[in-house]
Amino acid sequence: MSGKLMMALAAALLLPACWGALALWYKAAGNEAVRALAALLWLLASVALLAAGAFDHRAAALLLFVLAFALLLLWWHSLRPSNLRLWAADVAQMTHGEVDGERVLLHNVRNFDWRSPTECSVRWQTRHYRLDRLAAVDLILSYWTISAIAHVLVSFCFQEGERVAFSVEIRRQRDQAFSAIGGFFKQFELSIIAADERDVIRVRTNVRGEDDYLYRLRLPPAAMRSLFLGYIDQANRLLRAPRFYNTITANCTTLIFRMMQHIVGRLPLDPRLLFSGYLAGYVYRVGGLDRRYPLSQLREFGRITQRARAAAADSSFSEVIRRGIPSLEG
């Protein structure tokens, strides 16, 4: 076998070898030491087969690797998501809803009072809403690391001033921390949480030190209603049939995009759908934000971080954070 062909074969085997090691590290049964050992043994076996393929046992080495990888894939596809685990407190309950004409009964709306990233007063509530009183929808982007990545919240306002925000989140267990790489490897289930704004925004701006921006969405009443019902439908589906979170395909941006595609029709694909920190630019491009102002000015208007920190104990938290953001009516 020529050197170039051998290098091509090595490169072809390297990707599944590395993928397999990561899959075992994140999902093999057992504690961290057991998972590390499983990943290491897989890598060593892959290297041994690759080395054998460099000499006189190429066909046998390749066949053994293919069989081993096939067995690994069978195990991988046997893994199933579950709603029955020891969950972290903030995702311990599952939001779900009942719709009766214009009336909506929303169960497990989170309304925690956060004192630190790990300490809070736990409150899960049942709330009532009327679809015919739905008045506005806001997009909130929360940044915690780099400008390309943000968590996406969508908040619905009703004519009486009541608000509820939906957040698509990882459903992690008590001993788990977020991992973007783990999100590719079935480490977390998917969760949709409905929450009071003073909980879900304030925990980010005031407790975790994130930087939040709020944008008013230009949506006709029918689209607002459909999006609200879309969240309820997705939450109810997860209650019946759990899903794994995926960093690319099932996250806080892609679920919203799919719902909006269903509501308004075909939307253009764009790299900003993967890099959620730039989502506001995409929404502006497709006409979903106030076009009277450039995006940079909307971003300046919508930076709510300092207002949220100042309004920590204010019962009018939602009104305070929106001061200075022009209404869509002008």
| Overall outline | elongated
User: What is the N-to-C order of secondary-structure elements (H for helix, E for strand)?
Assistant: HHHEEEEEEEEEHHEHHHHHH
Low-confidence stretches: none
Q: How far do the termini sit from each other?
A: 72 Å
Instruction: State the secondary-structure class.
Output: alpha+beta
Strand runs, count? 10
Number of helices: 11
* Proportion in helices: 40-55%
User: What's the mean pLDDT score?
Assistant: 91
Q: Please compute the radius of gyration using only Cα atoms.
A: 23 Å
- Report the sheet with the most strands, covering strand number, pairing sense and barrel closure: 8 strands, mixed
Percent of sequence in beta strands: 15-25%
Topology, element by element:
Elements (H helix, E strand, L loop, with lengths): L2 H25 L4 H22 L4 H21 L17 E5 L2 E8 L2 E2 L5 E2 L2 E7 L3 E10 L7 E8 L4 E9 L17 E7 L1 H4 L1 H6 L3 E6 L4 H20 L13 H11 L14 H7 L9 H8 L2 H6 L6 H5 L9
Parallel strand pairs: 2-9
Antiparallel strand pairs: 1-2, 2-5, 3-4, 6-7, 6-10, 7-8, 8-9
Helix pairs in contact: 1-2, 1-3, 2-3, 6-7
How would you describe what is shown here?
This protein is of the alpha+beta class and 330 residues long. The chain has eleven helices and ten strands. It has helices spanning 3-27, 32-53, 58-78, 197-200, 202-207, 221-240, 254-264, 279-285, 295-302, 305-310, 317-321; strands at 96-100, 103-110, 113-114, 120-121, 124-130, 134-143, 151-158, 163-171, 189-195, 211-216. A hairpin with a 5-residue loop joins β3 (113-114) and β4. It is elongated. The mean pLDDT is 91.
